[in-house]
Amino acid sequence: MMTFQMLCFLFLFSVFILCDANFSVPYISVNTERLIEDLKILGQFSDGDYPGITRLLYSKEDKAARRYLIALFEKSGLSVSWDPVGNIFARWEGSDPRAPAVASGSHFDTLLNAGLYDGTLGVLGALEAVRSLKEVGFEPKKSIEIVAFTSEEVSRFGIGCLGSRYLVGSLTVEELLKLKDSDGVSFENARQSCGYIEKLRESMIAEDYYSAFVELHIEQYHILEDEGVPIGLVTDIAAPSLYTIEWKGPGGHAGSVPSYERQDPFLAASEFALNLEQLVLKDPKNTRATIGRVEVYPGSAGAIPRSVRLSLDIRDINEAARIKVKEQALEKAAAIARKRKVTMETLHNYSYPPAKMDPRIVEVIEDSCRAHNFSYLKLISRPFHDSLFMATKFPTGMIFIPCKEGKSHVPDEYASPEDILRGVEVLAETLARLSYQ
Ligand SMILES: [Zn+2]
């Protein structure tokens, strides 16, 4: 039987535990139905064949999606603002409003004929996390801010993570003003026609503006599904380098010039492509190299090509390894050019540094998984996300949930309600914990 002293001790001990943690996260009840309904409504703002979703930056569908998101944020009592490129911020003020906020979000644009969950899960999932925390009476200490990023996909202006890059200062106004879409519409005109008429200025966000950034996202591959694990904790994000290589030759008649006399840039490009595959196969687990675009000029069936231009995308989480593959690939390309007597030019389009997720944030996400008894797996994100750039300025972490057969950027992209529920519960728990750290 318990004595009065024992009861007193237990009471004081539990008070001590609560005070020591400074807060406690109440039982969170995520409303998955409400979240999926929001995702489906957002999916209707699309200029494409159902069920594929097409929502390009500053299109009328993007504008309608923006209005819908802002209305949802306001309905949940969040104060909404935006910057000149249209990154949208929805803030839940904490009891210490001057402390650096905890941020969570993702993007809501899509590629052509894409899926329902990529990016949008991170925006609406963050909103659902906030709504669930509000509903159980949680009061944040640091403010919690949802960020809905402008244009993570490359679909309209050929540049990825436009909003997050602008926010952290890795994309300047000068660079933005040079952008044009494939119809020749300038970024500036498109921006203003979407209602963002405020003069473009450099983003001046301070290093300590956010104390943490956490992005919830579908995995876009099938490691979690294969392993039967519901949550992925991202440790690193691989980043791309993009090069354009062009070989040129004199061309000639397809009928008259014999093979031994030709200086054929297409054969140089072909030999290069097969060599590249062999080079990458030496370390197949890490480096990725892709030739995604090939332009053959003049492109006539009856003429030997005069030029071939191709894109070379190399990705890795290790920058030194990425540089090594690039150097070896370009050396080989030059050797092939000499052998085949064609000229070669190389253009470096861009290189982004790979990102490491912040160990402290990863630990908080791990603790949140344990608190909910969810198993998890640490993994690398091969696709890049807004987190790649947020990590250049703020301590960042990413939570992955499985998507069916790893499919993404396609109309049948799918995440189950059960997986979404677990992802948002972990996100809510993580945001609540971070708001008291
Ligand atoms: Zn995405």
TrEMBL record:
Transmembrane segments: none annotated. Its cofactor is Mn(2+). It comes from the Eukaryota. CDD domains: M20_bAS (cd03884). Residues 1-21 form the signal peptide. One of its GO terms (molecular function) is metal ion binding. Pfam families: Peptidase_M20. NCBIfam families: hydantase, PRK09290.1-5. Homodimer. This is Uncharacterized protein. The lineage of its organism: Eukaryota, Rhodophyta, Bangiophyceae, Galdieriales, Galdieriaceae.
